[in-house]
Amino acid sequence: MIFRLALILVIVATIGCDRMTKHVATETLSGRPTQSYLSDTVRLGYTENTGGFLSIGENLPSGARTAVFTIGTGLVLVALAIMAVRVRLSRWHGVGLALFVAGGTSNWIDRAMNGSVVDFLNIGVGWLRTGVFNVADVAIMLGAGIFALAELRRNRRG
After folding, report:
1. What does each C-alpha distance from 41 to 17, 32, 132, 146 come to in angstroms?
2. Which residues, other chains included, contact 83 with Cβ-Cβ below 8 Å and sequence gap of 6+?
3. pLDDT per residue as tens, the chain (158 positions)
4. How many angstroms separate the CA atoms of 106 and 15, rounded?
5. Active-site annotation holds for 18
6. Count of domains observed in the chain
7. Residues with Cβ < 8 Å from 88, sequence gap 6 or more?
8. Is-catalytic flag, 137?
9. Is the dihedral of CA 81, 82, 83, 85 positive or negative?
């Protein structure tokens, strides 16, 4: 019971942090040039991503983007939430899934409300840089990584 409450707290905190950072990015970065920090290791700049990961699908017709990124993603998130409730997961599987669903949900909220996701972070050195991302994307990738490691660990035991 305490673990489930902790997972709910992780989900609420992740969504809250993402929503707040996107709000701050919208208010302080929109319409302004990209800002560079730490010898250009970190860049902050406002972007609205109508596509998916690394803007894949941004050139799809509007209806197709809505079908894939809003309706499809929403259905997947609901399925994952149902799975999380019905299937007995290990603690690490649960943490990974909670982070993944929280990040996905926060980005889904952007898509459902605005048709795009606010991205604002870019990290790298020289020509080696990430795509532009947000806190929800970090939660998604961290959650997927934790879940995958938990699964590898489970498979090694069994």
Report:
1. 22, 19, 13, 26
2. 97
3. 788 899 999 999 999 999 999 999 999 999 999 999 999 999 999 999 999 888 889 999 999 999 999 999 999 999 998 988 888 888 999 999 999 999 999 999 999 999 999 999 999 999 999 999 999 999 999 999 999 999 999 888 86
4. 5
5. no
6. 1
7. none
8. yes
9. positive
* pTM (2 d.p.): 0.91
- 35 and 121 in contact (C-beta within 8 Å)? no
The amino acid at residue 13 is A
The neighbour count for residue 13, using CB atoms within 10 Å, is: 12
